[in-house]
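User: As part of a screening pipeline, I want to sanity-check one entry by hand. Below is the sequence and the SMILES for zinc ion. Please return the complex as C-alpha cells so I can compare it with the automated output.
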Amino acid sequence: MRERFYRFMAGRYGTDQLNRFLSIAAMAAVVLNLFLRSPLLWIVSVALLIAVYFRTFSRNLQRRRAENEKYLGTKKRVTDWFGTLRDRWKMRKDYVFFRCPSCHAMLRVPRGKGRLRVTCRKCGAAFERRS
Ligand SMILES: [Zn+2]
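Assistant: Here is the complex for your manual check:
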C-alpha cells in the first residue's frame, strides 16, 4: 500500500508552503462556516481544497514552484510591512515618522526637537519638518 502510494506520487509535486497556507485557509473557512453557514464560503473552502489537491498531484513541477516562489515573495512583503509597523509602534514615543515629500521613503526624526531641517538619506532632498 505504502509502495503504491510512493509510485503514485513519483514525478508529482507534493506539498509546499503555499499548499500549507491554502490548507489552513480552507480549514479556517470550514470552521468559520460552521457559524456563518454561507453557501459562498462553502464554495470557497471546497475550491481551496481542490487547489491543494490539484497542486499536490500536479506533474507541472516548474509551474508549481513558480507559484510557491510568488507566494513566498508576497508573504515576505506582508511580514516585512507588519515588522516595520511594529518597529514604528515601539519607537513612537521617541521618534516622529513621515514620508519624504520627493521620493516617499520612510524617514524618522527625534520627537519634540522643534523645527528640524531634514535631509532624506535616500534621495538627498532637504526640507523642514516639525518634530
Ligand atoms: Zn527622499
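Points to compare against the pipeline: The first strand starts at residue 95 and ends at 99. The first helix runs from residue 2 to 9.
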